[in-house]
Design a protein that fits this description.
It is a single chain. With 326 residues, this protein is an alpha/beta fold.
Length: 326
Amino acid sequence: MSRRRLSPQPRFAARHDRETNRSDIDAFAHQFAAKFDSLDLVTHQDGRDRVIVTEDAQAERLQSFAQAQGEVKYHDLSQIKDEIARFRRCAPKGTFLEEFATAPSPGIVATTLQNVFYDSHEKYLDALARELRHEYMAIHQAGLILQIDDPGLADAWPTFIPQPPLEDYQRYARIRVDALNHALRGIPPERLRYHLCWGSWHGPHTEDIPLRDIVGLLLQVKARGYSVEAGNVRHEHEWKVWRDVRLPEGKVLIPGVVSHKTSAVEHPELVADRLLNYANLVGGENVQAGTDCGMGLGRVHHEVGWAKLQVLAEGARLASRRLWGA
């Protein structure tokens, strides 16, 4: 692997560069890195270029992030209680067949809240798991299904440069799964959903870790429902994983069959086809329609988001009729 600092104004190709055999993505990497003095370009053994942040810039950047500078403590549950109360005002008990609220996993919090206090990553995860449990229990005790959002299980893979052996990454991820399971102790699996995705950023996602490489970790989470990103062009094909992987008895797959990565609204027939791909492998009674990820935070316009949820319901009804004639 070679590493070099880019000149302030490098020449780059907007299209395929015949001289360097560099694709548009690589050209964009050159263009992007050239805009910042703190960025380096790394050429790996596979001949591909990746932009990274220099150590000095990374240190400066980390200082601007929220940090755990002391013992992690969950001091005030009033905000989560207020959120639950607002939800109940909008949807009194019995309004829907199932109601769930989301909370972050210890692993994704560890990724976004930098640790400068604990002397090991494991101790930091343990502390986060201990304190996040307060939030998990508040949701559970309010009678809501708890959904754990954990993009970090998959999305952390491309952040390692160079990428480690797969077995090392799986060990790293297993520590996070163990911390989560510890935080969930005492909550019945049937009151738990687990959401896995590859991050909501809009980009090529060419270096996403395959579902096949982490599906064993996914199934170690002590939840009944597994919500998996499955409706975008990078991961739609991964329903085939379940040809070879047995879904444990009593578990439910919640594949994302509408995607936040495009503003095009899926057709109900496409939604039904995607659901049937899963149903034909694991049984229709073990499949529930879901979204790739949340539709908020500007990922799609809110009217587009509501339209996607509408076709999600329509496609689920189509799939049900084809399975059971109902």
